[in-house]
């Protein structure tokens, strides 16, 4: 099957990252989903230690028929493993479960400011990166304050900050800070899960105008702005539909419709207080 080439973004260390990937948060039967995603054409697989599916994903990578080096695999450090030594040990465990010699992108999953360990954790990620066992390292859910504190205490700039981001929660100031620091913005919950974003009259009207589904239209909004985006789905049909977004784009007027939504706001946890996993 011929699949379209996925556009890439260039991380601040020169590594190329696919702009569209398959999110694996709480996806049932991760093994089969990864096989379906890879067959569809996805090359970015995003998981985390707290998702509990690294071993399944590693098995699918081994069995998918592609050279693992042709895939881009992201995983994340669990909050319970924050700290220098524990982060190093957790990385080794993720590497083992995935069955990979190198992880493409390793991320701190949440800042957990109440525990105040993320600076020590970042030192561990610096060590992992400099050892060559991760091609790039970054963070998730870090605010401007957290990013600036990293910048004050480290010469290594995160390659990526993976954040909740969708037209109903555009995080404009944080994205501007990413641009200033040379950090790629990656969107989780890009379709505003559970918020009825895709049922908004403005989104439905724009989807009719583009001749696409509401989800495809919102994903195109992300891609047109240079975000990396990782919609999740355990449904093969939806996986294929989410991938079918490379043959159209939105013009400035159409993008402005989505830019103007700014509701419902945050639908996921608040990184200033979230400490689970």
Class of secondary structure makeup = alpha/beta
> How many domain modules?
1
Radius of gyration over all CA atoms, rounded: 18 Å
Q: Give the class-level CATH name.
A: Alpha Beta
Enumerate the strands of the largest sheet in spatial order, edge to edge or round the barrel.
3-4-5-6-7-8-9-10
Q: What is the average of the pLDDT values? A: 96
SSE run: EEEHEHEHEHEHEHEHHEHH
Q: How would you describe the overall organization of this protein?
A:
Strand 4 (44-46), helix 2 (54-63) and strand 5 form a beta-alpha-beta unit. The protein has 10 helices and 10 strands. The protein has one domain: NADP-dependent oxidoreductase domain (TIM Barrel), CATH 3.20.20.100. The mean pLDDT is 96. With 277 residues, the chain is of the alpha/beta class. Helix 2 (54-63) packs parallel to helix 3 (84-98).
What's this entry about, in short?
The protein contains 10 helices and 10 strands. It has helices spanning 30-40, 54-63, 84-98, 118-130, 144-153, 172-181, 201-210, 214-224, 236-243, 252-259, and strands at 8-10, 16-18, 22-23, 44-46, 72-77, 103-108, 134-140, 160-164, 184-188, 228-229.
Which key terms come to mind for this protein?
single chain, 277 residues, TIM Barrel, eight-stranded parallel sheet, globular, 10 strands, alpha/beta
């Amino acid at each position: 099957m011929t699949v379209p080439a996925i556009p890439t973004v260039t991380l601040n260390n020169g590594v190329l990252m696919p702009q569209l990937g398959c999110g694996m948060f709480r996806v049932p039967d991760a093994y089969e989903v990864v096989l379906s995603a890879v067959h569809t054409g996805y090359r970015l697989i995003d998981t985390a230690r707290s998702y509990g599916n690294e071993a399944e994903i590693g098995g699918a990578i081994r069995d998918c028929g592609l050279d693992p080096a042709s895939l881009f695999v992201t995983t994340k450090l669990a909050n319970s493993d924050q700290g220098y030594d524990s982060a190093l040990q957790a990385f080794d465990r993720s590497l083992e479960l995935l069955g990979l010699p190198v992880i493409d992108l390793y991320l701190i999953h949440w800042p957990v400011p109440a525990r105040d360990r993320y600076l020590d954790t970042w030192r561990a990620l610096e060590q992992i990166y400099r050892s060559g066992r991760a091609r790039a390292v970054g963070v998730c859910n870090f605010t401007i304050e957290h990013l600036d504190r990293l910048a004050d205490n480290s010469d290594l700039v995160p390659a990526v900050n993976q954040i909740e981001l969708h037209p109903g929660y555009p995080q404009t100031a944080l994205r501007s800070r990413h641009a200033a620091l040379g950090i790629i913005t990656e969107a989780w919950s890009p379709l505003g899960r559970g918020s009825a974003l895709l049922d908004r009259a403005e989104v439905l009207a724009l989807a009719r105008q583009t001749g696409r589904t509401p989800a495809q239209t919102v994903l195109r909004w992300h891609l047109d702005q240079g975000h990396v985006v990782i919609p999740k789905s355990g449904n093969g049909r939806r996986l294929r539909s989410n991938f079918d977004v490379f043959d159209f784009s939105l013009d400035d007027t159409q993008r402005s419709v989505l830019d103007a939504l700014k509701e419902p706001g945050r639908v996921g946890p608040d990184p200033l207080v979230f400490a689970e996993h």
